[in-house]
Each structure stands twice: as C-alpha cells, then as structure tokens.
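As a warm-up, study this chain.
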Amino acid sequence: MNEYEGTVFRRSTHSVSPRRSPSRSLDLLIQSLSNVGKRQKDKLGDILHAVGKFGPFQKRLVLLTFIPSIMAPFLLNVDDFVFMDQKPYCNTSWILALYPNLTESEQLLLTLPRDPNGEFLTCLMFMPQVHSEKNQFHLNLNNTQPCLDGWIYPKAERRSVINEFDLVCGKETTVDSVKTTMSAGTLLGSIIFGITSDKLGRYPTLLISFMVLVIFGFGTAFARTFHLYLFSRFCVGMAIVGYVINSLSLASEWLMDNHRAHAICLQFCFFSMGNLYLLGLAYNFLHWRLLILVGGAPLFSLIFYIWLLPESPRWLMVKGRVEEAKQVLLQAAQVNHNVISRTLLQKLHQSKKNMAKGSVLDFYNNHYLSKVILVLFCAWFAISFNTFTILLKTKNLDVNFDLLYLVTGIIKVPARLCCIILLDKMGRRLSLGILLMQSCLLSLLIFLLPSELKSMQSLLYIAGHLLQATTITLFFIYSSELFPTVLRATGLSLVMLAMATGATSALMLLSLSSSLLPVFLCCFFSFLALSLCCMLPEVKDQPLCDFLEHLPKRSTSLDFIRSLSLDSSEDLGTQDMSDEVVKNTFINAIMCRFSKGTIPDSSLQSREEDT
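Now compare it with the structure written out below.
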C-alpha cells in the first residue's frame, strides 16, 4: 500500500474503528459514484448566492441589456421600411426645354411609350434628337431607348433606398437579398465573436461588438453608394450576433437559478418592443436616411458601457485569473450591500496545472459536447428555417403590412413571457418538446389546409410566427446552459451559425419556389427537431458546468471516482490522486470486505469489471 492510501485510511480511523474503515471507504466511493452528478460542487455558485441572487447589481446588469435589445430588431428589420416598392419612370425633363409649361401627366404622355394595357413602360423612353443648327430638341416617336438621365418616382410617398440608388431596370434588389447579406454577416460574426469571447473575455468582446454596431449601424445613413449600404448591413449583422452571444453568456454566468431564465426571457421581450419602436419611427420619418439617423441615435449611449459592464467571474475563474474574479465578486457584493466571508473566497483557487483550456476541437473530441452540438445544430437549423419561412410567407399575405407588424410585435411580449411559466413548471427539455410538437402540428395544418381559405391561412401563419418566437427564446436559454463556461460562447456561436444557415436556406428556397414545398419542409424539420431534442439532458436546477471535466462522459467507474476525488478533497484526502492510487484504494476496500463476507459474489464481479 502506498503512502497516499495510508493517508486515506488513517483519516478514516478518526471517526470509525480500523476494522470498519475498508467497508466505510467502499460505501463512500460507491455512494459517491452513484451520485457523482449531484455531488459536483459549484463553489462559485455558493459565492454568487452570498453576493445576492438578484440584488441591485444583477438588476443593473439586466437593465443594461434593454437598450441593445431594443436597438437590435430596429437595425435588423429596418430594411423592411427603406425598401418600399416604387413605380419608376424615365426622367424626361429634357422636353421642358421645348415646352416649359407642360404638366407632369402631359410630359409622360409625350415622352414615354406604353404597353398594350395602356400602362407607361418604366425602362424605356422616346429617343430625343437635336438640331445642331438651332441647338433644339424634337421628338422621334418611332424609336425608343433606355433611360438616359435616371428615373423619377412621381407616386412615391417616401424616400427609400430604391429611389435613392435607382435600383430599377436591371438593378432590382429586394429586401430578401439584403437580408441574405446580413445572414452572411451573421455567419462570419458568430465565428469571430464566439471564439474571441472565450479567448479574450465577455467584457472586451461585447465592447467590440458595440463599437461596430455604433459605427456601421448609425453610419448606414451616410452610405453614398448601394455597395457601401450592403457592406454596412453586413457589419451590422456581425455586431448583432456578437451582442447576442456575449449578453447571453454574461446573463448565464452572473445570474442564478430561475433568475437566469427570467432575465433572458425579459431581454427577448424587449426585442419585441424594438419592433414597435421601429414601426413608430417609420410612420413618422419618411426619408430612409432620417429614419436611421433618428432611430440609431440611442446607439451612442452604448459608449458609456465601458464603465458599467462587468466581466464574468466564471470566465475569469476558468482562465486562472482568480484575483480578478475575487475583485469583481467583492464589487458586486458591495453594490448589493452584502458581505462575502473570507472562508468562501478562499475556496476559489485554480492552479496552473489544472487551468482550463478549450478549443473548437473539443466539440469533436469530447463525446458529450459532440452529441450536444450535433443535436443543437440540427435543431437550430430547423427552427431558424421554420421561423424565416413562416415570416416571409406572412409578409406575402393579403394583410396590411404595418398592421401585421404592430399586432405581432404586441402579442410577442406575452408569448415570450409564457416561457417563464413553462420553464418553472416543466423544465427545459419538456417545454421545448411541447413547443416543437405544436410547431409540427401547425406546419402540418398549414400544409393540408386548402389554399381557398385565405383568412384561416393568415391566422395560422401569424400563430406560427408567434410560436417560433417563443421557441427561439426558450432554446436560447437551454443552449446557453448546456455548454461549459470555457466553451460557452464558442458553443453559442456554432448554434448561431446553424441559425444563420437555416435563415439563408429559407430565403433561397422561397426565392426559387412559391409552392407548398417550404411548408412541407417546415413540418419535416419540426418533427426532426422534436426527435433530436429528446436526446438532450435536462439542466433545470443544475449548476452550470465550468470545466470540460465536469461534463458527463462515457467512461468507467474508475474515471468517475477519480473525478470525484479531485473535486472532493475533504472526503478522499487530497486533490491530486493518480489512477493507480484510486484503483488500489477501491480494490483493497473490495477485497477486505469480500474477505469478511459482506458483499455477494455478483456485486463483486460487476464492480471488478467496472474497475
């Protein structure tokens, strides 16, 4: 027996007789093995309880998410109001040099050809000719040519991007194509900001995303060309996904228990309020540049977040920056008017030997992470595809667009608040299963409903839109709790990657097909997501994982005992126990007990096989 084993058994003799120490050690190890998930200590969670579950510090943190949450949907959906359809006509003001007293209708009659239905053609005009001797124009009604001096929009009620950059006559660009550009920005931003967040921290990455949002969100109003406008929208998509990933990480790592889910649900409710904010501004400001300037002005308040945002103590801990984590926790406790005992603070220690390191490759090498990320990727793709398909189908309904925007924006708030009740009563996995089941049934109804029932289809599309918004809110909460702190932002970036992929696929498919194929795929993907999400573990009332070693894994009993020994030094005597020591301790305890006839042969055989 080596030195460490003697230490273990000598400590056991203080409370029990030497004759019973092997039996007690075996009971302790077996009991700890069966309850390893429940016994796992969340030392930082104990300190966060001492800081205050939801004190003024946590309330301030939640309040800081309100302004970005309102601005995010404004910047995401402003294209719906700056790409209003306009009827263009060729600019034929040259005729006024000949006939300066012509009215607008007379000018169109004289200079524009018409189609068989009597409508003016938008991309052709009669060719003017010039007499070089008299330097005068005259009309040639036999020949037409494309517009020479641009276009006019006599029936336009607002100044949009279309008539600003003349996106007509071969240069047409739709809202969906611009949203595809933003989806591409989301793809790139999810990779950059996710990995950066786990490497540099939540605080600096969030500030970088805010800086990009201020520069390109507000700066979109100053775009001189359409290509600059697209580039600005691309960068806005990158910045918004960076904000979403880091705000979810901060909320997950600072808040405790049900307060975490409640705060994230409230944050998404302000997303819905942002749609109402956009609608109100678009109704009052008819020039697209003025709309973005006035609506984007609150972005400058994000500059003050440099002094207000805290760093995540969990991230600091997993990176070995223990003193900084203690300092942040003491500041939070001071704001909450609480005191953290020195005993609790002394529990925070992280040696360089065990310093957590994580990379994207862990999602391939780690069995638990690989299973979770594959399930979440497929489920997020399905949910995103369904959301954008239903959203785009809803826009094509014979319903007033502004009224539809107003109604859905208002109803989304109570719909997302329902997530709080579902999560408190049913947990994460069951609540998600219920929502996905409803989504599957709703998609099936839309697919089977006759196309003649327009009003019923409209109601089902609106109901599907609200249901998908609730599902996304719940799924964001669930996803943020499934990943360990060392790879939480990277994991969220991967699921955001799946979300952007699903959105882009829906946009491309709807542009190619207007049949029921997208609705059928919605039904299929909903059923697929429902089937896959049953494989996810339930995390309600469970402490957040910080290290990869805390994750469930396919291993033998020896590995679980060793991990337990590393986490529970007060029970097993040390923090640095080798595999050989654990094996010898476990086998010696079994053999001592077997020699006294206290365990049956079948139990011994099964435990020896595990060992």
